[in-house]
Amino acid sequence: SKGQQFLAEPLSSCSGGNSLIPVLNVIRAVHRPSPLGTMANHGGKRSWKLQEFVAHASTVNCLALGKNSGRILASGGEDRKVNVWAVGRPNCIMSLSSHTSPVDCVQFDVNEERLVSGSRSGTLKLYDLVQGKLVRTLPGHKSSITSLDFHPFGDFVASSSSDQSVKIWDIRRKGCIYTYKGHTDTVRCLQTSPDGKWVVSGSDDGTVRLWDLTAGKQLHMFPHAGGSVQCLQFHPNDFLLASGSSDRCVRYWDLESFSLVSTTDEASSSVRSVVYHPDGECLFAGCKDLLKVYGWEPPSCRDTIAMAWGNVSDMSVSSNQLISASLNGSNVVVWVVDLTSTRLTDDAPKRPATAASQTARKAFDRTAERPPTYAGAKGDAQLAEGVDESSRHSPPPDDEGPPASDVFAGKQRMDRTPPRRAVAPFPMPAGSGASPPHSRPAERTKPSNKPLSDAEGLDKLLKGHQSQCKVMEERRHHLQNVHSHWSKSEIKASVSTAVGTKNPGVLVDLLGILNIKPSLWSLGICSIVLPAVDELLKSRHETHHQCAATTIKLVLRHLAPMILTNIKSPPPDTSDLAREERYQKSQGCWSNLRKLREVARARSQESGTTGVQMKELHMAFTILDS
């Protein structure tokens, strides 16, 4: 973060624009506390934890906040239940038990009166929250649901899955009307545009794809520089799209010219969630234990707030507050950020409007009549490139379907609930150490009533500090050795040095750089890395096996075809030494990939996000069967 001081001067830049310096700087920062200016300011009431409560009997897999009010929350868990909560209150207001497999995704509609959930088996469930009942069951995906979104103007839902597809569902006619295919890895996130004409999807294959619902085809593909795309958000007004990824950057895309507008500097970790301010003046990006406030023209980080929310799952803006929710085992934690004390705009005067400025960008039209997104019985809408014809269902011949004006025009809502009133902001905690009302913190050991002396308190704080410093100092030493080779463009030597340290943290740091630059990989590097990845994949640390899974997917995507070709055509004799060497390396890689496949298959039976990730990885290994 800005203002952070490091103990050593930055090292020189590395070749190819890929540097281990950010990793080394994080190690150095361990020896010096972060400045108070970037911490969650309880004294100034900048941000605070509103509540923590036990949401499920087992691991919580997903959650979603109501985007309209930020006052309602849904959670899905390994217990196959969907629970609905009023934010700020401790008791569950509704528990929905209709899934037969763990729930991996939930989402509210714009009015927060309907809820859709997706399970690990690939089935969607639609609920009416006003009546508190199940309305629809929509089977169709072949694997776990990863993201859901309601269409803003009609009874349609978009879904994505680890089966690499995006589906559009007509929830009144009880069927899938489009299946979009084009991604080559798990589709991680999606969103419908404010005018209801487009759906955008982001995948682990590093691409963002824009789908035209009216034409039924892919409109454009935005290539990411590197890393899995984790989150997407349309600007509330302008033709602008923000995408956050595992390479720790946010990218802004112009949807009129299909060009990259700007890219933020790297954050400390992958970008987990993004949301625009309702006025569109800035973007909030949630990383691990960090909130960033970004501008895009020119690109700038306007504010940084250190949070203790872990990996944030969803964010919503309401009443000059940003409400966020994160997962922690079977618990859900809700945080509030006061936006009146957050820097939302740049201090510099705004530039005059130009062709590239956001003030001149085309805006979404919410007033035009919406064309239907399904083909009528007459079949005049042709199936376009990118749509799977086998899974596109037209209405029955005896049912022409409703006109477009009926599908997308606003309908009169029944007065089943009192009219909505203005939402009051959440109150700030009474003191920096006081627990907010209605919170249910996780159980912890009851503290002793005996007060500690200053010496005892300091001793308790420093307990284990020296040993941790030694561990981090050793890690920094290893990384400096790796960097000495990297700075000379000796990539293979860097990888060999990292593997030779037998330090998982060093290997994860290096793979984090290699995984966002596939062009650096070769058969030689693959043969060195794969044996060491086996231990990372078996690790109990989430960051280790996540890094291992990303590495294996990259190898399968970019190197598996070459490995298969080499082992299917062994050299006729040993005189061709180069070909013989390629063959031996390919045989080693093939053997290691088979072992890793078995590890992924065994761990896919585990519960929670680890099991989901290993199941996705095991599916990726099917390329070896070709």
Average pLDDT, all residues? 79
Shape, please?
globular
Stretches where pLDDT is under 50 for at least 5 consecutive residues are: 1-43, 348-359, 370-419, 432-445
Q: Quick one: biggest sheet?
A: 4 strands, antiparallel
Rg over alpha carbons: 26 Å
Strand content: 25-35%
Q: Order of strands side by side in the largest beta sheet?
A: 1-28-27-26
Number of strands: 28
Give the N-to-C terminal Cα separation: 46 Å
Amount of helix: 10-25%
Number of helices: 11
What structural class is derived from the secondary structure elements? alpha+beta
Question: Could you describe the 3D structure shown?
Answer:
The protein is α+β, with helices and mostly antiparallel strands and 626 residues long. The protein has 11 helices and 28 strands. The strands form 7 sheets. It has a 4-stranded antiparallel β-sheet with strand order 1-28-27-26, with no helix packed on it. Strand 22 (273-276) and strand 23 (283-287) form a beta hairpin. It is globular. The model is unreliable at 1-43, 348-359, 370-419 and 432-445 (pLDDT under 50).
Write the layout of secondary structure elements.
Elements: H1 21-29, E1 47-54, E2 60-65, E3 72-77, E4 82-86, E5 92-96, E6 103-108, E7 114-119, E8 124-128, E9 133-138, E10 145-150, E11 156-161, E12 165-170, E13 175-181, E14 187-192, E15 198-203, E16 207-212, E17 217-223, E18 229-234, E19 240-245, E20 250-254, E21 259-263, E22 273-276, E23 283-287, E24 290-296, E25 299-306, E26 312-318, E27 321-328, E28 331-338, H2 404-408, H3 454-461, H4 465-486, H5 491-500, H6 504-514, H7 523-538, H8 542-558, H9 560-568, H10 577-603, H11 608-620
Antiparallel strand pairs: 1-28, 2-3, 3-4, 4-5, 6-7, 7-8, 8-9, 10-11, 11-12, 12-13, 14-15, 15-16, 16-17, 18-19, 19-20, 20-21, 22-23, 23-24, 24-25, 26-27, 27-28
